[in-house]
Fold these 3 entries.
Entry 1:
Amino acid sequence: MQISSSLTIFRQNLINKMIGSLKRSSGAGNNNSESGINRIVEGTFIEGTIKSDSNLRIDGYFKGSLTTTGRLVVGLKGKVSGDINCLCCDVEGTLEGEVVVTELLSMKSTSTVQGELYYGQLSVEAGARALGTFRMGDSNEKESVNQIKNSAQKPASKADALASLKASTMPNESSVVLNEEISIGTKE
């Protein structure tokens, strides 16, 4: 009787392990968005809009609008182009466009990043290529920068500069009139 009950317990444990491993491998029961990673593999081209609440890794090519509340990883052979908005971003491949990274933008030595970028923190390894405008802070500052650029005066033309010089004169000795005579170094 004891052998039979031990065998039954062994079978039940084996079945539980098999079912548990099936759940883990198929993703069933794993609804935690922080541990989920969406992947665009090498050789895949996607054009359009992606919105995700979890992490995203791109080893293929994506062009369009990408928004994720998680981490974006652009793999060594990955290329991402367009309007990008993410929490954190690690770049090994190519990233271009208008990019907003709320926290850390990490550029690895093999990366090429170009465009208009806004980030909370920046980490750049030696060898990384950066082209464009990089601004620390929120992308809302973009509007205030554009307002300053638009409201700034245009440079004066040569004619304006010459007219201004003619209108202003430097005082010379004959044009200086003193109302009082001041003596220095003598006692009266």
Entry 2:
Amino acid sequence: MSLLRYNGITVCRNPAIPQKNSYFFPLTSYFNMKIGLFIPCYVDALYPQVGVSTYKLLRSLGVEVEYPEKQTCCGQPMGNAGFERMSAPLAEKYDDLFRGYDYVVAPSASCAAYVRYFHPDQLHGVKPDHDCLAAQKTVDLVEFLHDILKVDHLPSRFPHKVSVHNSCHGVRELGLSSPSERNIPKFNKIIDLLKLVDGIEVVEPERPDECCGFGGMFSVEETAVSAKMGYDKLRRHIATGAEYVTGPDSSCLMHMWGVAQKEGQDIKFIHVAEILAAGL
């Protein structure tokens, strides 16, 4: 495996076939790599600062970034609700818009996982001869920084105690951290990146990879169960003594924020991109 250094980043240049939960993507030179920035619809509408932080962070690392303005929802809400045929046109639009980029980076583990694992089948159903190119290039921000750029230092500073929330899609589809049900050595790519931030104290709650109860449509269809799961998860984060809860999915953070507001708990929520870009 050959390596090169660019802007303080260790770059893996060994092309290998991607396998689920273990991605080593084939790379072009970082001097001409072009990234398409995909901002999920709920991030755009409710947490635009997460998209801005993602853009600033990638640009600070010397990556050329473009934000296609005609992008739309990836189709995950409809697909998860059982309406995959209705979400297929969105998968086609996504592929047409992003297929020309070297990578597509999204600050959302759940949306990145949906695109990567469900778009190919959806497109094949409506266009059997259509090659789904964008899906295999789509990565979550944490994956991109940790596995592709292999970032080993950041200029950011965040002098606070932070509890890490490992969202289900990130753990079990993207391999951002080790799932507790598997007998494998423990790892956490989110924590690896956070430890590069000056002044931060990183902790994890008890049962670190347990679901917060959001689950998209699950929180609507099973409200009582979702709320109880959210309360249990929030209580474990609070027990760490953290000032903030962070993670790669604004949807999970939004769910726990709602529970915290209802319970009158004084704890803050912040996307990992905002911490990694703090001070930029």
Entry 3:
Amino acid sequence: MKRRTFLTRAAMGVTAFASGVLPALGTERPATGQTGSAVAPPAADAAHAAQSIGRPVRIASIGFQSTGGTSIPLERIVKHVDEEGARGADVIALQETCRGQNASSEELLNGPTVTAMAALAAKHRTYIVVPIDRRDQEKKLNTAVLLDRTGHVVCHYDKVFPYWSEYALNPPVSPGDASAVYEADFGRVGFAICFDANFPEVWKRLSEQQAEVVIWSSAYSAGSSLQAHAINHHYYIVTASATPDCIAYDITGERLLYESAKDVNVSRVTLDLDRGIYHENFNLEKRDKLLKEHAQDVVQEKWMELESWFVLKAKRPGVSARALAQQYGLEELRHYLERSRVAIDKLRGWEFSAMTDFPEKTVGELQAFAAQKRT
């Protein structure tokens, strides 16, 4: 996505959700920059949402102890997913290649694992993130598949940075070439897998696609590596690993949850996607006016003095703190930083990030290249 495109969309402040009909199992909309329509939740869930404060999403993370590509019996996975679906999860996330990654684990997008999970997604009206060892014609891929509340495949993400050992498999895992963010009925959800944790460009791309929560399925925990991405991009991150454990990071970068177990770990976390984070620059007068005129609707939940950040959240059902902040002209933090980057690069005459993309070029060559692009 071009930065101008990002800024145009960012100016909207909050995501508008569409509705429509989703394709059947085995077909889907494109994964890259996914903005496909989401099926409306059932009436009972809609009524619950209407009574909820903010925009809560209930996420369950399930991880099984697994090493060296060990196969996990499908029956075990079905049992735990069925239980979490019955508890009312909006999203159920499984660990990386949840059935293992070995000589017998490859399957198609409409193979046994996705088919079994699709039945549970439809049964419980929940989204399920199903990471599989996927075969696509001649390619082997490490893929996270997203099923919607009707059991339809609506998005998939192929791991952009496979780990070294994955290239030693026969056939080797092919690296993906695109990030994926899907607009679900609760908000914009993005995906990353395991070794992706170490590459900032993956997480920057998810931010440019306006992810609000990122599901990270993995073989290991990563810890503060993920915290850095939450701090830099101000989306939630929730993990499901084969350690097995689960970590959840806030839009502030704060660790909200860490749970682990010896055999199978099941963690539950509820996140409010309507909470907004802002820098004090150019926002304080607008914030003060908003809080004065809507004292019953919005509260400053957190003031982060060292960072000069603050977080706003709704106080009662039917109120969107982010929408009201937009009405009062407040600019969300990551939008502010991206706008600043673009504006300062324009004053500079070339994009500073180009020094990373083209380290062999001099400043003069980068200036000339930028001038050529403008013409």
